[in-house]
Amino acid sequence: MDFWAYLERIANVVGVLALIPLGFLITWGRKQLREAQNRRHPPSRTPNDHVGVLIINIFQPNIEAEVIEHMRQKHPELKLHKDKNEFYKDMFPVFNGYLSPDDMGKFLGELGKIKVELYEKGIRHVHLFIFGPQVFPLIIGDEFANNIGITYYSKDMKTKEYVCWGEI
Questions:
Q1: CB-count burial class (<10 Å; 0-12, 13-18, 19+) for 135
Q2: Burial letters 87-121, b for 16+ CB under 10 A, else e
Q3: pTM above 0.70?
Q4: Which of 116, 166, 117, 129 lies closest to 55 in space, CA to CA?
């Protein structure tokens, strides 16, 4: 047997042996990818498992009670629990009923904290109620774009009812 034929057999054996750890590596990588995707978007057990209510108040103190009453009337299928899926962020003391362009950084910082808290609690869709500038839902929608879906509600000042403006 000449040298090149012997070398070819060794190369074939080494090549086959190299496929075994490569197969394990590919299998492990796919498992890690699946787990990461499940952490990002966990499968829902029921339609309401990952739905919450987010109330952001800037200009008027305490709108929480009327919003929760609205949600219980219009969406009785949602089981609202204070610790689980209701989030009330009173920014009235932070901004004192007035917003300046300099306050935008502070608002975005507070928004980032809210996003992390919602995500940690497993909320993947929120019903958003804001008492503040009408541009804020767009800012919040942009901030939450890749992680949390938003349905926006605004209060109609004529009828004093909250009106759904749809998905952001």
A1: exposed
A2: bbbebbeebeeebeeeeeeebeeebeebbeebeee
A3: no
A4: 129
